[in-house]
């Protein structure tokens, strides 16, 4: 059964990789859009969001069909690195960092410092995924999950407009998200909480509630809802980490 059905989650994983690659292709064509670069960057971010959707579904499919496999796990890591490491880094380079070059030995724009900053993201994502494969807690993540990090950067064109937001703010947020991936901050696993605490009825009510909320705020504003959930998730981990540090400090003082 595993051999026959393993193609289902593996196909979703390859869909994840395809969406990440498509995001890079779209971002690379932004310069040929005659002033519509932001539209291309936004579309690239949407492809990264679709990659995250495929990433969530492949694990669910593998568990539901009892079709987990070693090749599926390795394929998942490679797809995640492409979609949530390389693609966001390339998007950020095309959108902002390609302008940053410094003079070396009297030659103008010889050293592409922006390229090195962009490389920070795939480097951190690769380390994050390797650490997860070697050792991971079944109840929580160590470091910000790469799909969350990738989607956060993918939505930068919408919320940190490259034409209006200060570049230093965009770059600082980009580097911060990358560092959070390799940090020791613990993040909860939403899928574990859903499986352990939500019955099918409660899960249905939750999905229905989200649908009603989307209808109320308007379909055009759905990115704000997603970004709100992402920021809540990111800062919940940071706040929990800080609370633990304060508690440990108080214990040492006592």
Automatic annotation (TrEMBL):
Keywords: Lipid biosynthesis, Lipid metabolism, Membrane, Phospholipid biosynthesis, Phospholipid metabolism, Transferase, Transmembrane, Transmembrane helix. The keyword NAD does not apply. GO terms for biological process: phospholipid biosynthetic process. It catalyses: a CDP-1,2-diacyl-sn-glycerol + L-serine = a 1,2-diacyl-sn-glycero-3-phospho-L-serine + CMP + H(+). InterPro entries: CDP-alcohol_PTase-I, CDP-diaglyc--ser_O-PTrfase, CDP-OH_P_trans, CDP-OH_PTrfase_TM_dom, CDP_ALCOHOL_P_TRANSF_CS. GO terms for cellular component: endomembrane system; membrane. Belongs to the CDP-alcohol phosphatidyltransferase class-I family. This is CDP-diacylglycerol--serine O-phosphatidyltransferase. It comes from Leptospira kirschneri str. H1.
